Amino acid sequence: MLLEGLAPDGGLYVPVELPLLNEAALRSFAGQSFAEVATQVMLPYVTPDYEPDEFAALVERSYENFDHPDVAPLRVLNQATGEWLLELFWGPTLAFKDVALQLLGNLFERELTAKSREVTIIGATSGDTGSAAIEAMRGREGIQLFMLHPRGRVSEIQRLQMTTVDAPNIYNLAIEGTFDDCQDLVKAMFADTEFRERHTLSAVNSINWARVMAQTVYYVTAAVGLGAPSSPVAFSVPTGNFGNIYAGHIAREMGVPISQLILATNVNDILTRAFETGSLQLSDVIATASPAMDIQVSSNFERLLFELLGRDGPALSALMERFRLLGHIELTPDVLEAFQELFDAMSLDDEATSHVIAEVYDQAGVILDPHTAVGVGVGRAVRADPEVPLVMLACAHAAKFPETVEGALGERPLQPNRLQALAGLPERIDVLPNDLEAVQAFIDERRS
Ligand SMILES: *Cc1c(COP(=O)(O)O)cnc(C)c1O
For the chain, how many structural domains are there in total? Predict the structure, then answer.
């Protein structure tokens, strides 16, 4: 299940039962390190595959390369109003995806070594996921990673973060096409059964359950840091694939006292519209200042729908099939009501986002990245209870998006060492046409 993205029926994996965190457990987490809490939160999911000691060591190793001792520190934004940032960008690629992918890399390697297996991971990236996956898989036993990106259409920082990694098992394929072309190539390779089996293809995209599991941890540590289990916390989460906020929902289901989960989208607002109208309706992807959220089909939303449909697998597959066919579906009134009970939602356009970046810099001297700014703007607008601390997830370091920050503030954020160090390093990159045969031939050759 770890190595396969999809279940045999084409759907996504979800656990049969969630392990619960009772009040005593939450209380015991106060004062523990991130890795210690992470081990206890996730252990029930990996038992009996792992002994507690082995798993604790693996988790410890996964987070030792983070630049902050707390891994995911809370930073006060406004003490008086109870606004906090949960900084998730202290990992190797300065975005929150490292929190899950650093762990996933270790889980993959352990699984493959135990079974003497090898896999070929292929993925498509418009920026952030690619570098996080590459950092997670570099130099690992039994794994080759081919990451496709649209040539010339990722930012310079994003490209350098991928192409300067000097590891023989990593291939950066710059495709002469768009991100959608890259995604189509990856899908076509997975659909080619013979090719898929020959290379034992695997994926690390955000539908992998292990990523959701790893992301529940920082909801736990943040809530405990702000008074759980004695008092509740609200979270505002910038959303693209519904992965991060879905992890918040799971944390709440596991017993973390979360009084409000706020879903923040940019103008690619399919989920916000569904929340308001009950109609899940595809439209074209619009390029925004928060590119990691420029998504129309939020894969993990399917997991929530499964739950809202009373865990009725066949009903869900029929619904998703209709959605793929027609590009829209209507949620029934009771499903919509359940969705609205669990979340709040709003979207923010680029202009409003830029305004939030300027406002927060004025108020607190903190520079937000555009994704985080969407979450802050929406969080402030729809916060339900001013007495409950509001935690806004800071999903990337502002220095990854210097142009947008400069547009809002008139100056560029300082570059952290990890980014400065990339300048001038040799790049490893192969340019290929937008052509399935050419890409498959390239992979065949490297894998033989
Ligand atoms: C991936 C990403 C998001 C969106 O997260 P989802 O889990 O896809 O909802 C938001 N911000 C940043 C910086 C990201 O890299």
Answer: 3
Residues 233 and 357 in one domain: yes
Secondary structure of residue 195 in the 3-state scheme:
helix
Token pair for 174: 């710059």
Q: What is the pLDDT of residue 60?
A: 98
State which of 12, 87, 94, 97 you would mutate to test the pocket of ligand 1, scoring each by most atoms of that ligand within 8 A of its C-beta. 97
Percentage of residues in the chain with pLDDT exceeding 70?
Answer: 97
Same structural domain, 224 and 362: yes
Q: How many CA atoms lie within 13 A of 442 on its CB side?
A: 24
Residues of the chain scoring pLDDT < 70: 1-10, 206, 448
Verify that 165 and 300 share a domain, yes or no.
no
Residue 396 lies in a domain: yes
Q: Say yes or no: CB of residue 211 within 6 Å of ligand 1.
A: no
Question: What are the CA-CA distances from residue 64 to residues 204, 212, 439 (Å)?
Answer: 21, 20, 35
At residue 6, the pLDDT reads: 58
Per-residue model confidence (pLDDT) at position 9: 67
Within-domain flag for 341: yes
Within-domain flag for 323: yes
Binding site membership of 292 for ligand 1 (Cβ less than 6 Å): yes
Angstrom distance (rounded) from CA 109 to CA 104? 9
Shared domain check, 297 and 231: yes
Q: Please state the atom number of ligand 1 nearest to the C-alpha of residue 132.
A: 15
At 386 the three-state DSSP class reads coil
Rounded to 10°, the helix 313-326/301-308 angle is 130
- Would you say the CB of residue 242 lies under 6 angstroms from ligand 1? yes
- Edge-to-edge strands, sheet with 258-265: 74-78, 83-87, 390-394, 233-238, 258-265, 344-347
| Residue 393 confidence (pLDDT) | 98
